[in-house]
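Standup notes
- DV: blocked on the single-chain target, sequence here:
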Amino acid sequence: MNLIAHVNADGEIRALIATLDEKRNMMLNAPPGVQVCEIAEHGFKGKALDLNKLAKLLETHTVEVTPACGKLVRGRKKSN
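- DV (later): unblocked, structure below
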């Protein structure tokens, strides 16, 4: 199961979206000032979602927000 979060700049979780691994073809638009990030190692297993555990996670956790990382690769730029 994948867990996607809408997160404020200070790490506050505004919304959580749970998806099954094979069903990730959705569009996630966040309002201004909010970013979308995937939560790794969230502890949810299988295809059943425990709503009480999800609510507890919202109450007790924040997200450590880090800027997007890119890897510089040497190579020629492709022309159009």
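- Follow-up: The radius of gyration is 16 Å.
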